[in-house]
Amino acid sequence: MPNRCYVPGCKSGFPDYPKYLGKFTMFSAPKDGKLLKRWNEFIPRKETLKPSSKVCSHHFASGDVFKQTTPS
């Protein structure tokens, strides 16, 4: 499955992604049922998110994303 943003109209992960939009991070759909339901409420699609669905960082406020490093 390609790493493409699930949000309608978003070009993140597509070959024609506009470079001027800058870098982005892809987030997997949450496994927690309540959180998954919230994501589905905010994404305007008839289909629901699947475990393989991704949403890019362009659709989150900066305070919604916590950056952390993972020990190697």
Automatic annotation (TrEMBL):
<dbReference type="Pfam" id="PF05485">
    <property type="entry name" value="THAP"/>
</dbReference>
<keyword id="KW-0862">Zinc</keyword>
<dbReference type="GO" id="GO:0008270">
    <property type="term" value="F:zinc ion binding"/>
</dbReference>
<dbReference type="InterPro" id="IPR006612">
    <property type="entry name" value="THAP_Znf"/>
</dbReference>
<keyword id="KW-0804">Transcription</keyword>
<keyword id="KW-0805">Transcription regulation</keyword>
<comment type="similarity">
    <text>Belongs to the THAP1 family.</text>
</comment>
<dbReference type="GO" id="GO:0005654">
    <property type="term" value="C:nucleoplasm"/>
</dbReference>
<dbReference type="GO" id="GO:0043565">
    <property type="term" value="F:sequence-specific DNA binding"/>
</dbReference>
<dbReference type="InterPro" id="IPR026516">
    <property type="entry name" value="THAP1/10"/>
</dbReference>
<keyword id="KW-0539">Nucleus</keyword>
<dbReference type="InterPro" id="IPR038441">
    <property type="entry name" value="THAP_Znf_sf"/>
</dbReference>
<keyword id="KW-0479">Metal-binding</keyword>
<protein>
    <recommendedName>
        <fullName>THAP-type domain-containing protein</fullName>
    </recommendedName>
</protein>
<keyword id="KW-0238">DNA-binding</keyword>
<keyword id="KW-0175">Coiled coil</keyword>
<keyword id="KW-0131">Cell cycle</keyword>
<keyword id="KW-0863">Zinc-finger</keyword>
<feature type="domain" description="THAP-type">
    <location>
        <begin position="1"/>
        <end position="72"/>
    </location>
</feature>
